[in-house]
Design goal:
Length: 487
């Protein structure tokens, strides 16, 4: 790819970007949200036509007018949101659009055999007869990879492939990537998780503001240098320091239970404190937060806020009491993507922003404008649809609506999932600012460096139970957390 330029109304997404990829290479493509990574890959995958620039495959000029033409040339793009038909089986999804009909009939037995062989090559087995909607996330990803192999892909783009995977599933994916590499298949790997980049990549390409700002061999590349390339400035520390001064207990939970998902969970969080819930996938972290917030009905348990019993039957009760939840999946549960960012901000604040039962538009715009400035939300205007914002800015909009309510207790569930390094640092600084003002934060995270970098105390969960507590103010290790997580 040479001199790739792409513009949209009001935005120049790519500004003369160059990219080379060799057979059997794992190339990491990095940059903050909005840097142009997705746009560049859509050009490569035929979803966008560049305004200027050229593409060459094996030295020959090539033009893609559609994703179908890119696939025919051996280029597959696996998006973070999988492109599968939920009601079709794995076999049907793999061969969708490339069925080999004979006398008007599709040879299903042959397709099934071919699918079995593809999964054997991937070292995986899945239920071929189950609709993809009922397959686990990791299995759906395998279907996407198998589909790429089915049409002899020579180049596969993976966009945030481990965002919804457990550590064990991610490890299996790494093995598959290395196997693809050994067969001469080139892989473009997009991820905000730097540990994955250092484990897999041969070279690293960094984009910033639509420009190519650097290509480095992974060998010898330091974490600090890579982060500074991405954000364009020096970050003193990945996890900003603060002095921990916990105050009185704000929230106390005892005997919380729901079936086998959450079993007799008790904890306290103090003003000015960040309490982390750690554990493997399925440990019960998210379920615990949802029970306290009233999103799910608890079987048992008592909740005290500032020493007073609190009966929470629904999120409305929790919000009225001053508890806010930044959900694990902001796109499905935290935002209405088709509505404007201002409307999303206003939803839990209708009473505060209304006058005589009607929305006060001036008050609404002024309130949201204050948070846009304070949180440095990058949005062209307040009527912009939430779906058009980067992950980091979407998360800031979710945070803004709870800050407007002045919540005293905030639950952060996977607060930086799918967010670039620069935006992560801003979220971490915001969390520190909140606890410095006496707010209490409970953070559920599968990112162990994040847990160790931000939490004052760590509660480790396994199979719905708390298996141990660690005082992180004295310093903890990943090994200590994992030992309790597997207890």
């Amino acid at each position: 790819m040479r001199g790739i330029v792409k513009s949209f109304p009001g935005v120049q997404a790519l500004r003369g970007v160059d990219l080379d990829l060799a057979a059997g290479e794992v190339l990491a493509l990095l940059g903050e949200n909005g840097a142009g990574k997705s746009t560049l890959m859509k050009v490569l995958g035929g979803a966008h036509r560049p305004d200027a620039g050229t593409l060459r495959l094996d030295g020959q000029p090539i033009t893609f007018r559609s994703p179908h033409e890119a696939r025919a040339a051996g280029i597959a793009v696996i998006h973070q949101e999988f492109n599968l038909v939920p009601g079709l089986t794995a076999v049907e999804n793999i061969f969708l659009g490339q069925e080999r009909a004979r006398a008007g009939f599709v040879p299903r037995a042959e397709e099934r055999w071919r699918a079995t062989e593809l999964f054997r090559r991937l070292g995986a087995t899945i239920d071929l007869d189950l609709p993809c909607a009922r397959l686990p996330t990791a299995a759906q990803q395998l279907v996407e990879i198998a589909r790429a192999l089915a049409f002899d892909a020579r180049m596969i783009v993976m966009d945030e492939p481990t965002a919804a995977l457990s550590d064990a599933e991610a490890g299996r994916l790494f093995g598959i990537v290395r196997d693809l590499q050994a067969r001469g298949i080139a892989v473009v790997y997009i991820s905000h998780r730097l540990d994955e980049i250092f484990a897999l990549a041969d070279r690293v390409v960094v984009l910033r503001d639509g420009r190519h700002v650097g290509t480095r061999p992974r060998a010898g590349l330091g974490r600090k240098e890579l982060i500074e390339l991405m954000v364009g400035r020096e970050l003193a520390e990945e996890y900003p320091r603060r002095t921990s001064r916990p105050g009185a207990v704000r929230l106390a939970v005892s005997g919380l239970a729901r079936g086998r998902a959450v079993r007799d969970v008790s904890f306290q969080v103090r003003a000015g404190e960040i309490l982390a819930l750690a554990g493997l996938v399925g440990a019960g972290r998210t379920e615990t937060l949802r029970l306290v917030f009233g999103a799910d009905r608890k079987d048992a348990g008592e909740i005290l806020l500032d020493g007073r019993p609190l009966e929470i039957r629904s999120p409305r009760d929790a919000i009225a009491a001053g508890i806010g939840l930044l959900t694990e999946d902001r796109k499905l549960q935290g935002l209405m993507l088709g509505r404007s960012v201002r409307e999303n901000f206003s939803l839990p604040n209708l009473a505060r922003l209304s006058r005589l039962g009607f929305m006060d538009s001036r008050r609404e715009r002024e309130a949201f404008g204050r948070h846009v400035a304070a949180l440095r939300i990058k949005v062209p205007h307040q009527d912009e649809a939430a779906r058009n914002l980067s992950g980091g800015n979407q998360q800031k909009v979710v945070l803004a609506k709870w800050l407007e309510r002045d919540c005293e207790v905030l639950f952060f569930d996977e607060p930086t999932r799918g967010i670039d390094v620069g935006a992560r640092h801003e979220i971490y600084q915001l969390m520190n600012d909140l606890v410095a003002r006496g707010k209490a934060i409970v953070m559920a995270s599968s990112d162990l460096p994040e847990v160790l970098g931000m939490a004052d105390r760590i509660l480790v969960m396994h199979d719905g139970r708390i298996t141990g507590e660690l005082d992180n103010r004295r310093g903890c290790t990943q090994e200590e957390v994992m030992r309790l997580a597997m207890a």
